[in-house]
Amino acid sequence: MVDFLDGNDLVVRGAVDAGCRFFAGYPITPVSSLMNGMVEALPRVEGIAMEAEDEIAAIGFCIGASLAGMKAMTATSGPGLSLFSENIGLAVMVEAPLVIVVSQRQGPATGSATRTAQGDIQFIRWGTSGGMPVVALCPTTPAECYTLTLEAFHWAEALRAPVFLVMDRELSLTRERVDLAALNRPTIREVGRRALPFSPIGRETITRCTTSTHNEEGLLTTDPAAIQRLIDHFVAKIEDRREELTRIVFDRQEGAETLVVSYGITARSAREAVAAARKEGNRVSHLLVYSLWPVPETAIREAARGVRRVVVPEMNMGQYRLEIERIVGREAEVAGVNKMDTTLISPVEIMEALK
Amino acid sequence: MDPGSFLNLDALPFPFCPGCGHGFILPRIDEALQLVEADPAKVVIVTDIGCVGLSDPYFRVHTLHGLHGRAVTYATGIKLARPDLHVLVLMGDGGMGIGGTHLLSAARRNIGITVLVFNNANFGMTGGQHSVTTPEEARTATTPLGNLETPLDICATLAPARPNFLARTHAYDPGLPRLIADGLSCNGFALLDIQEYCTAYFVCRNLSESEGLISLPASEGAVEVVHRDARPEFSRAYRARYHGAPEMEAAIVSGSAKGNRPVASTTPVSTSHFRNHPGRRGGAEGPVRRLPPRPGGDPLLPLRHAEGRLPDHHHDRPFGFGDPPQPGPHRLHGDRRAGYPDPPLRRGAEAGEATDPDHAFGFLDLRR
User: What is the pLDDT of residues B97-154, one digit of tens each?
Assistant: First the structure.
């Protein structure tokens, strides 16, 4: 059945199908309709959907509900992500499974509240104190919003960690034809196999959670060895799964001299640009990154092997390009196609950089 | 171990300064939990930041120690998920100040959590800075020549929000366990403003004479239940209203959850829930201000459409500031700008052919 839906609609469907039964949010463009959708959908499956008094409360409700055993999700944009910041750290610290949808709009501050951007890519990675790794998945179409929402829940549960679903205004609010019967539903078997144990608050086993550095019993500790063990655990549970978490599509062309690395809504322009450039006789490969964080380093290194130039189009002033430069900057020239004028990067603009 | 105690007696003594009120209050919480015959596995203590945030390991119940001022939000989430649990919040006057909006909203919702404010009128853990409850003229690290601000009376502030239980008391009140138990049993939002001393900072700066020391709790008002109500508890009221409601079923046409459509209601929206609050202490009573009658037909039609103007609290502003901003237009990319063709929705056969199988990712196939 082909329907006419936007990314927010598909996140709602994905969340419900993933078993999400708790949502709390605060109205903000471009995810207000996502919250409205959860308010309509969750009561029908005996879930809870709350409009909180602010974003701090929204994520606080979610952390509480998550620790009490419900699969929880919240959604916001840049200004709300700023208010989430401290509680993202808490979710990391108490290892609360949580899906955080960030649909980007033009910042800084209120910015162009109804216009699109990709300006929060590094903010999502480094958005809380302490610098612990996070997982962030970035779809390019409404149908992928569905699939990656399911994945986000699986990883949040398996890793006991906040997982970001990175969108933008255009993906959130632009309706497209979506074949609901053809939606891609990932299985959970591979994730579930090595999920971290979790005993929710309110069951027979007494559970202790704390925002402070703590030992294995959940008790506050100032012992440097115990604190280092805790930090190593936060890092290892994500870094050790870097390959498992890699979600990419590599469209390789034999003998390519140029590689385009793209993500999110801009990847769709990149795909057009690569196809057009090939028609003109250019040899171009295209790496589409769905798993922004942790950075799929192996895939990027392999994709860039032999190319002279790497082009990274993004609607910011070069945030993900920093990662590409870090990984392959010694072997190839890394160039960006960047703008923040609230309009999408067109295939033509990317093609200019491929000549 | 005392079989009936909720305290983790092995962990004693408490870590507080000599004479600190916190050490007086924690055993009273234990007694209150025994009074209501709580099951330890169904009790959650959520602590805020500050000296009171050291309390959770001393209880053998579920505990969550969260961020400064936000304990009420975690407690709300837990209660929403598990209405059958006793959820207690232990916070100081500092957390009460920084998280004031959460307290107001929790009280309005009447969410079934019991908040104990350990009110020692300053920030003890960080060196005795003034807080929202520091008395006028009191000397603290940040009001060295006397406090110029008026202290917040939390019970009076929350009373107009009509939670089920608000009480003002102090750490040495022999009736404290009973009062906490009343809060736990009120089946709604409960808050106890518990006055106490910070001996490390507040007492030595302000109350060097024993007379002043003794008089402080009394000066803050006698022990009293400031407000009682019997409104439905939110987590249960939500389930009763929304779960299995036919209106919610009707809101979504099968196969197209649009997310923006108002829920059609067959019953008129109640107009009695807007009240004038006279602002007097405990002033939850007051004349009910009713909205003007709605136009017939759609009860959800915005008021301003009825009379061409906003409700009278906006009467000094004429209706119409130009067209209100519209939510993002729902259109295809192809409409947006020249040179930007319709994106391929089910693209990828040709991309798939060129894809290196080594990089096809696991069990997911996003190329479809």
Answer: 999 999 999 999 999 999 999 999 999 999 999 999 999 999 999 999 999 999 999 9
Q: What is the DSSP string of B271-287?
A: -TT-B-----TT----P
At residue B228, does pLDDT exceed 90?
A: yes
pLDDT at A295 over 90: yes
- Chain B contact set for A172 (CB, 8 A): 328
CA distance B200 to B297: 65
End-to-end distance of chain B based on CA atoms, in angstroms?
Answer: 62
Q: What is the number of other CB atoms lying within 10 angstroms of the CB of residue A287?
A: 26
Q: Does B361 touch chain A (CB under 8 A)?
A: yes
pLDDT single digits (tens) A59-103: 999 999 999 999 999 999 999 999 999 999 999 999 999 999 999
CA-nearest of B30, B69, B75, B77 to B53 is B69
Q: Over pLDDT 90: what percentage of chain B?
A: 58
C-alpha span between B201 and B92 (Å, rounded) = 15
**Residue A330 distance to chain B (closest CA, Å):** 23
Question: What's the rounded Cα separation, in Å, for the pair B298 and A288?
Answer: 48
Rg of the Cα atoms in chain B: 27
For residue A246, the cross-strand partners are: none
CA–CA separation, A16 and A93 (whole Å): 26
Q: Which residues, in sequence order, are bridge partners of residue B288?
A: B275
Cross-chain Cβ contact B355/A249 below 8 Å: yes
> How many interchain CB pairs under 8 A, A with B?
269
Check: CB of residue B265 under 8 Å from CB of residue B247: yes
pLDDT, tens only, A108-140: 999 999 999 999 999 999 999 999 999 999 999
Q: Against a cut of 0.90, is the pTM above it? A: no
Does the structure show a pLDDT above 80 at B30?
yes
Mutate one of B46, B364, B367 to test the A interface: name it (highest A CB count within 10 A). Answer: B364
Q: DSSP for B140-176?
A: BTTBTT---SPPP-HHHHHGGG--SEEEEEETT-TTH
**Cβ separation of B259 and A12 shorter than 8 Å?**
yes
- How many helical (H) and strand (E) elements, i.e. helices and strands, does chain A have? 14, 16
Contact between B111 and B235 (Cβ < 8 Å): yes
The residue ranges of DSSP E strands in chain A, in sequence order, are 2-5, 22-25, 48-51, 72-76, 98-106, 112-116, 135-137, 162-168, 176-179, 208-210, 248-251, 258-262, 284-289, 291-293, 309-314, 333-338
Extended beta strands in chain B, E state? 43-47, 62-65, 86-92, 113-119, 122-123, 129-130, 165-170, 190-195, 224-228
- Average predicted confidence (pLDDT) for chain B: 76
| Cβ-Cβ contacts under 8 Å, B100 against chain A | none
Q: Where are the beta strands (DSSP E) in A176-225?
A: 176-179, 208-210
Interface pTM, i.e. ipTM: 0.97
